[in-house]
Each structure stands twice: as C-alpha cells, then as structure tokens.
Amino acid sequence: TFLSGSGLVRTLWFIVITFVLSDNQILSTKPGREESLWCTVRNNSRAEELRWYQGDGTVNLKDGNKMNTTNICILPVSKTDNGVSFTCKLVRNESIQISVTLDVQFPPLLTGEDPPPVEEKNDVKLTCHVNSNPQAEMAWYKDNSPLTLKRGRYQIHHTSEVFQLTIKKVEKSDNGTYTCEAKSVLGEMRKEFHLTVEDRKPAFPLEAIIAAIVVVLLTIIFGIVARREKIFKVIKTSVNQKT
Ligand SMILES: *[C@@H]1O[C@H](CO)[C@@H](O)[C@H](O)[C@H]1NC(C)=O
Ligand SMILES: *[C@@H]1O[C@H](CO)[C@@H](O)[C@H](O)[C@H]1NC(C)=O
Ligand SMILES: *[C@@H]1O[C@H](CO)[C@@H](O)[C@H](O)[C@H]1NC(C)=O
Ligand SMILES: *[C@@H]1O[C@H](CO)[C@@H](O)[C@H](O)[C@H]1NC(C)=O
C-alpha cells in the first residue's frame, strides 16, 4: 500500500490540470486562485482512511471524504498561505504520507510612514515594509536620483520584510523626498517618504534654570531662618526688658 503521487488536481477557470506528486512537492500559485489538493491510496488490499494536516494541525474532513481518496480546497488562496504545507497521511500508519507546500507568488507591496520632522544633527530612520514573493530587488532614491552611500552617513538594513534607510547626523541638504523601490519578476512598486529637516533649536538651558530655582529656594529658606532668629531675639529682648 502506498499513497499515489498522482494526487494533486488544480482547478483554475474551469481548466483542470493534473500534476504528478513526488514527496514534498511545491505548488506555485497566486492569491485569489482556487486550489484543490487530492490524495489517493493506490494498490490497497483494503479500505484505507486518510487524514490531512495543515502544518501540525489536522484538517476536519466530511465523512465521505476520508476513505481511499480525499481532497481539500483552498478557496481562495491568500498571501498568508505562502509557505504553508499540507500533508496527507494514512491513518493506519502515519509514516506513509505525502506533502505539498504552497508557494504563493505576488508582486511587491510597499508600506511605510513619513518620519516626524527631524532636527539637524539628529539621526533618522526611513522604514519601508516589503511584502513580496519572490523577493524583490530593492533600492533607495533621493529626489529621483539613486542614493549614493556616501561617507558612511547612510546605513541600510535589509531583511525579507523591511528595507530601512538610516541617515546619521542629518544635514539641511538631506531634506527632501526619498523613494523606496522594489522590483521583482512579477512587478514593481515605489513608495515615497518625505523627510523634513528642521533648524536645530537652541539648546534648552535646563541646567541654568535648575540652578536659578535652587538659588531662589535657598535665598527664601535662608531668609526665613534669618527672620526666625530675629523674631526669637525680639521675644527674648522683650522678656528681658520685663524682668
Ligand atoms: C500498482 O498497481 C498498478 C496497476 O494497477 C501496477 O502497474 C503497479 O506496478 C502497482 N504498484 C505497486 C507498487 O505495486
Ligand atoms: C477502498 O478500497 C478498497 C480496496 O480496493 C475497497 O475494497 C473499498 O471498497 C474502497 N472503499 C471506498 C469507500 O471506496
Ligand atoms: C509503516 O510504514 C512503513 C513504510 O512503509 C513501514 O516501514 C513500517 O513498518 C510501517 N509501520 C507499521 C506499524 O505498520
Ligand atoms: C523639505 O522636504 C519637504 C518634503 O519633501 C518639502 O515639502 C519641503 O519643501 C523641503 N523644504 C526645503 C526647505 O527644501
């Protein structure tokens, strides 16, 4: 008894294509499509029950969809299904199994927000969030010309999810429009970020103000202490005068 590789049927606009599955097959698809996965027992001498797993969790199957052959539908396929694997196992002996992993392909999608206005000499980060399969080629532009990574003031942090530009010690000339660009075989997208560089505000003289407050407080306290002594003296002298 073994699970046939010829289990996968794909439905798309009424066209039915049958794939031959070897173990752990990759199924390339797109968001919005409908995919149907089939699993069939071949050369079995008796009725065999089948079970589907999505990742580690079991998939609930209707009663008529368990014996000898079974199918599950993914309707519609979404971006979040990318990388999800479906495994069909023989209930009697789960080591007999067949898997398919979804490879959901879609053009790049960029998102992100303008940074708040930044003062000269401070650092600023422009974070471009990328969602793309296959991975896109990324680039930054400033006022529509490619960014030259000059004098180490620019740093780029690139993962599968973000493409982040850090500008160290911004200058007035860094003010402008920055464009994050993603290109893949499925398409391209650009996202603009506006960076406003403000004049450096004069340093807030916090220490001077604290010092002034301390001086004023001390003056008041000494004033009170001095007066108390005077008050006592007055009382003492008046008492002395009475005697
Ligand atoms: C399964 O049965 C088919 C015929 O139905 C035969 O051609 C094939 O060799 C068999 N495979 C195994 C592994 O027994
Ligand atoms: C499953 O296959 C076995 C062996 O070929 C057969 O006896 C049985 O009737 C089948 N059961 C169903 C529900 O198709
Ligand atoms: C399950 O199937 C595997 C592969 O065919 C086999 O080696 C193993 O002995 C079977 N285990 C049981 C408990 O039948
Ligand atoms: C700074 O950049 C912003 C955004 O691109 C732009 O609107 C503004 O006119 C620029 N300011 C100066 C002084 O260049």
From TrEMBL:
Residues 1-22 form the signal peptide. SUPFAM superfamilies: Immunoglobulin. Keywords: Cytoplasm, Disulfide bond, Glycoprotein, Immunoglobulin domain, Membrane, Signal, Transmembrane, Transmembrane helix. One of its GO terms (molecular function) is cell-cell adhesion mediator activity. GO terms for cellular component: cell surface; cell-cell junction; cytosol; mitochondrion; plasma membrane. Residues 32-99, 107-196 form the Ig-like domain. One of its GO terms (biological process) is cell-cell junction organization. The chain crosses the membrane at residues 208-226. Gene3D superfamilies: Immunoglobulins. Its main location: cytoplasm. InterPro entries: Cell_adhesion_signaling (IPR051275), Ig-like_dom (IPR007110), Ig-like_dom_sf (IPR036179), Ig-like_fold (IPR013783), Ig_I-set (IPR013098), Ig_sub (IPR003599), Ig_sub2 (IPR003598), Immunoglobulin_dom (IPR013151). It is a single-pass type I membrane protein. It is found in: Cytoplasm; Membrane. It comes from the Eukaryota. This is Transmembrane and immunoglobulin domain containing 1. It comes from Chelonoidis abingdonii (Abingdon island giant tortoise). The lineage of its organism: Eukaryota, Metazoa, Chordata, Craniata, Vertebrata. The gene is TMIGD1.
